[in-house]
Design goal:
415 residues; mainly alpha; Proton glutamate symport protein; 0% strand; disordered N terminus; disordered C terminus
């Protein structure tokens, strides 16, 4: 087959469509041949490990270069940061309120008596130590932080390093060229790895359906149904925001379909980061904005997770017969809004947030085990919304904070 025919075939069946076919095929395999589907997990695991291999070099080089290139205009950098965090908290608040509202409308936990179907992670935190949280932002060994895949300390060092490179001017050119080479190499490597995504997605979905489908899924079907209905509602809200920015919501969604499908099948935002960054850059958003907002958003803008956390807590309260009074609902809103950001550097973040909220309204932390059996099915949807929420953040920063911003600025700051 000639190169021209291969290119024509790819244009006819783009990668997102191939991933969708892989998703459907994996579901069919897992349902019809569960014993075979259960053996396909290593295919998906290898793919996820390969993508995660790229994340830290890409985040470090992209964020450092983004801060370096914006270093000549501190006011613009401050404006971008302000817009980003206003959107992060506004979107999180909307998501939390929607989760509470959908529970009040549908009451998925009413009349349900469930037994724990999963295990609580050992040493799960039930509160946030804010002193340690802020101290953990500063890595005492940046190499170890990168090796441990701790993204927040890496972000902190990359931001400081970017400012420092901008401050020294021409002396930083050689380092900047190396970082440019690293980032371009990571994008190139991403293209090779992502080419096998349809096969990996088929393997992941076959394993999920084969090992986690069935009775547990049916027992929690109402909660899962309400969650996905809520996620659709928040997507519609995002589409309205896109429309008022003067863009076509469906065309915008189609452009980022590849990272959305990867998020849905892998339940991992990290896996989508290299692909997501490249797509947004190709769509015309300056690399400075993409490199600045996406790594921050993947840690601090978790709209789908916030919606799930508020809905799950309300569900568990009804299961345990705890009345959701106005003070309890306000506690859920405020605690989720704060804890959702405060656990960005904590392993098993969603479960930690749930533990914090349950403790704040007097519910036993053991209630998390009720959800653990079907958490994978809910994680797929909320991770997808997390990714799309960060797409909206990048679009907002480009429209309202990136006027006149291009990728050809050579900063030269005097300290």
């Amino acid at each position: 087959m000639s190169i021209e025919k291969k290119s024509s075939l790819y244009q006819k069946y783009p990668l997102w469509m191939q991933i969708l076919v892989g998703l459907i095929l994996g579901c069919v395999i897992g349902y019809l041949w569960p014993s075979f589907g259960a053996t396909l997990q290593p295919i998906g695991t290898a793919f996820i490990k390969a993508i995660k291999m790229l994340v830290m070099p890409l985040v470090f080089s992209a964020v450092t270069l983004g801060i370096y290139k914006m270093g000549a205009d501190i006011k613009q950098l401050g404006r971008l940061g302000f817009i980003a965090f206003v959107w992060f908290y506004l979107a999180t608040a909307i998501s939390v309120i929607l989760g509470i509202t959908m529970n009040e409308i549908f009451h998925p936990g009413a009349g349900v008596v469930l037994e724990a179907t999963g295990k609580i992670p050992t040493n799960l935190a039930t509160s946030i130590n804010w002193v340690n949280f802020f101290l953990d932002l500063i890595p005492d060994n940046v190499v170890m932080a990168i090796a441990s895949q701790k993204i927040i300390p890496t972000l902190f060092f990359a931001i400081c390093f970017g400012f420092s490179l901008a401050a020294v001017g021409d002396a930083a050119k050689s380092v900047v060229n190396i970082l440019e080479g690293v980032m371009q190499s990571m994008f190139k490597l991403t293209q090779g790895i992502i080419a096998v995504a349809p096969v990996a997605v088929a393997g992941i979905m076959a394993w999920v359906i084969a090992t986690q489908g069935g009775k547990m899924l049916m027992a929690m079907a109402k909660l899962i149904g309400v969650l996905y209905l809520s996620l659709i509602v928040i997507m519609v809200i995002f589409w309205v925001v896109v429309y008022f920015m003067g863009m076509n919501p469906f065309a915008t969604t189609k452009k980022v379909m590849e990272p959305l499908l990867l998020a849905f099948t892998t339940s991992s935002s990290e896996v989508t980061l290299p692909v997501h960054m490249k797509i947004l850059e190709d769509a015309g958003i300056p690399r400075k904005i993409v490199s600045f907002v996406l790594p921050l958003g993947y840690s601090f803008n978790l709209d789908g997770s916030a919606l799930y956390q508020s809905l799950a807590v309300c569900f568990l309260a009804e299961v345990y017969g705890v009345p959701l009074t106005a003070p309890a609902l306000i506690t859920i809103l405020i605690t989720t809004l704060v804890a959702n950001k405060g656990t960005a550097n904590v392993p098993a973040a969603s479960l930690v947030v749930l533990a914090v909220i349950l403790t704040s309204i007097g519910l036993p932390v053991e209630a998390i085990a009720i959800l653990a059996g079907v958490d994978r099915f809910m994680d797929m949807g909320r991770t997808t919304v997390n990714v799309f929420g960060n797409t909206i953040a990048a679009l907002l920063l480009h429209k309202f904070g990136g006027q006149g911003l291009t990728d050809d600025v050579s900063p030269n700051i005097n300290v």
